[in-house]
Predict the structure.
Amino acid sequence: MREPDLAYPALGFWKPLARDGRREGERFRGFASPVDLHQVSQGELARGLLDGSEIVDNAGRRFLVQDVRRVGRKTPMWFQFLLALFGQTDDVVHILELDLVEGPPITFAEVRQRVCAAMDRDADEWLEAELEAAVERGRASEGRGPLEAAKSAVSEAKTVQEMFDGMDAVWPR
C-alpha cells in the first residue's frame, strides 16, 4: 500500500506499551517531516510508538497506522555494537515503511483537546522540561508556568504548525 501525501508537520497519537503488555494512556508526538515519521529509535519501537496509532496532518486529515515494517537501520552496524556494549540499544534508529489508511474526519477542537489531555497526563515530564529551561535561563519562570503557557498556545492553535510554534515559543529546541 502506498503512503498518502501527508501535510507536515503532523501529530501522532499513540498509547505506549506498559511492562505488563497493556496500553497506557494516550500520548502525542510531533513529526516535523517525513524523516521524523519514518526514523524512530529502538526504544520508541519497543514502546509501540506507531503500532495502531493515529496521525493527524497539518491539513486536518486523520490517518490510521495499519502496519509498520522495519526496512533498514540508520545507525551503522559498528555503532550499534558500541551501543550494545554500553547497554544503549534503545538509541539504535530504524527506518520504517508505514501503511496508512485515511480515517474518519476529526475536528481540530478534538485534536487540541487530546494534546492538552496528554500534556496533563504527562505533567511530570513537562514540569521536568520546565525546570531544565529555568536552570538554563538561570532563573525560575515568571508568571504562569510554561506547561500552562504551552497548553494555552495549543488551545488557541488552528493548525498543527501553530501548535508546534506555540510549544516552541515556550520550550525552544
In short: The mean pLDDT is 79. The longest strand covers residues 62-73.
